[in-house]
Structures are given as C-alpha cells and as structure tokens.
Hints:
Layout: E1 6-12, E2 25-30, H1 36-44, E3 63-68, E4 72-76, H2 87-103, E5 107-115, H3 122-134, E6 138-143, H4 150-164, E7 174-176, H5 185-198
Parallel strand pairs: 2-4, 2-5, 5-6, 6-7
Antiparallel strand pairs: 1-3, 3-4
Guanosine-5'-diphosphate is lined by residues 30, 32-38, 79, 143-144, 146-147, 178-180.
Amino acid sequence: xxxxxxxxxxxxxxxxxxxxxxxxxFAFIGRSNVGKSSLINALANQRKPLADVSKTPGxxxxxxxxxxxxxxxxxxxxxxxxxxxxxxxQHKFNEFVSDYLLNRENLVCVFALIDSRHSPQKLDLxxxxxxxxxxxxxxLVFTKADKMKPGAVKRNVDAFHQAMREWCEGLPRTxxxxxxxxxxxKDILEFIGQxxxxxxx
Length: 201
Ligand code: GDP
C-alpha cells in the first residue's frame, strides 16, 4: 500500500468523542519515547511531519486521528506508563485508552510499539498480555532497530517472545523497524493494505 494522502483529522478526549466509525482504524500505542511519532511520520512520509500534531500541548493525552488516503484512520493513542502524572490522572488516562481498545467497533489492529534496545519490560508485557486476554487484535513493532547491532535486537525480540509464551500459544506478527533507516515500513504498510482488503468495515 502507498500513502498518497495523509492529514490530521481530530483529537478525541474519550471514546464518545471519536469520529463516526466510517473508516477502518489502525491504532499505534507504546510507552512515551518509544518512537511512536517518528514511526507514524516515517509511515506517512509526508513533507510536513504528520505526528507533530500529537505532540502539541493539550493533545498528548488525547486520541489523535489521522485520515489516510481518505480510506482509513491511523489512530495515535497516548503512551501508557506516564510515571510523572498523578495516580488519579493515570487511572483516568488508562481508562479511556482501554475503553477505546475494548469498545471501538471499527478498530482493525493495534500496533504495540516496543523499544528494541531493552530486554522485556514488565509494563509492555502486561499490556500485551491484557490485549491478548481481551481478544484485541494486535501486532508487535520493535522500534529503533538501527541503534543496536542486529544480533542484540534479535536477542531482545526473542526474549520478549519467550516471555509471552508463558501465556500465549501462537506468537503475534512481529515487525522490526527503524524510523531512521525506514526498515519495516514497507512491511507494515503491506500488512495494513492486506488487512484493509480483508475487512468489511
Ligand atoms: P514518542 O514519544 O514515542 O512519540 O517518540 P518519538 O518518535 O518522539 O522518539 C523519541 C526519540 O527517539 C526522538 O529523539 C527520536 O528522534 C528518537 N527515535 C525515534 N525513532 C527512532 C529510530 O528508529 N531510530 C533512532 N536512531 N532514533 C529514533
């Protein structure tokens, strides 16, 4: 799939404020600083970086919608695991993200971003386990692969898969990406293209 048109649509503070479910949605989520904006920008490959909108004040903790090719929505979800926000705010934040993930009828797939430089992190494992248990369709996307030697990336990916095997029979589809080199970009877009062909939304 080629992206020939991409633009910011709206920011939604909760599920009720999301746009009418007219397009299939592909959502991107990960801990803050995982490389989510960079990946979205690399995928969209527009002259003006798409995901800068998500970083503007007031939108960082919102569900940010980007309209792609007038046929699907790329949904930028707030990062989970904000250590700096107060306990109460964190709870609310998790609640509206989980509300979206559990109840959004036109959500086709979640891209769960994981920093490939680290050994498996508890929060990432807990989140993927939760999605698996809830039956939310997701794939894994390891980011920043250019920052490490390929062998070291593979070790971290294998370790993550190994940890998942404790509660998961088949492993999810997994992409190893770099926004700097463009690695994995074509594969992710191809996957979205195929998923679009197979969805009835
Ligand atoms: P976000 O908070 O998840 O949206 O993360 P950003 O996309 O803003 O990236 C956080 C930092 O990591 C920035 O300094 C990026 O330049 C850097 N970064 C993101 N992706 C990559 C990548 O694939 N390779 C390298 N070398 N740096 C990256």
